[in-house]
Amino acid sequence: MDPSPSPPPGDSSSKLLYAAIGCAVFLVIGLCAATGLGVYYLGAAADEAAEAPVVPHVPPTPQGPTGVQPPKPGMPGAPVAPGGPVAPGGPALPPPPGTPTAPRIVTATVTAVEGNAPVSVGTPCAFNVEQVPNAQEPNGYWCRTQIVCGGRLLYGGPSSGYFPCNVSAGTPPTISGSDGMTTGSDTDAAMTLDTPGQTLTVRDDASSVYGAYSVTARIDQVM
Predict the structure, then answer these.
(1) If I label 214, which of 32, 131, 179, 200 is the partner at 20 to 30 A Cα–Cα?
(2) Full-model pTM
(3) In a domain? residue 173
């Protein structure tokens, strides 16, 4: 029997070549398809980014050292202007009743004297009147002064000179008050001060350093 015929030598090489060419074609087609899909998705993402709204950057509000924002004017805890809270569109309100104010300066001129008065008619007087907190007084304070006329102390002393009073902050300010006890009772003279009525009276008994006397003066100015 004759042996089976052998395939021609060139057939196997041709088949391998065709297979390699086919694989290369499929590889190229796959790469092209992948590249196209990538370009498509990149373009879609760029379109979405272009259509998305842009949110502006807002810097944080400055805060105090403790991290708490300071209160706005008019809110609890907000600083208050000197002299009291400020009314919207207006000047500062006056301090509440009972709040001590700056000392008032009073000047006067002696108009009448009696007894052992250490001064004469025409003697000038000048003294300060200051408010001192006193919870026992209805208005929350009383006054203290050292009344000096012609260099002589007529009312007051190192631990004296206190009297119930009312002080207004008008223009000019007014002061009204009196101390009805003389040196024999409370270590200083009796005194009545009435700046609206422009009068000052100081009197004392025989136990004072000057003896019994009375001095009346006219209030010239209150500052």
Answers:
(1) 131
(2) 0.57
(3) yes
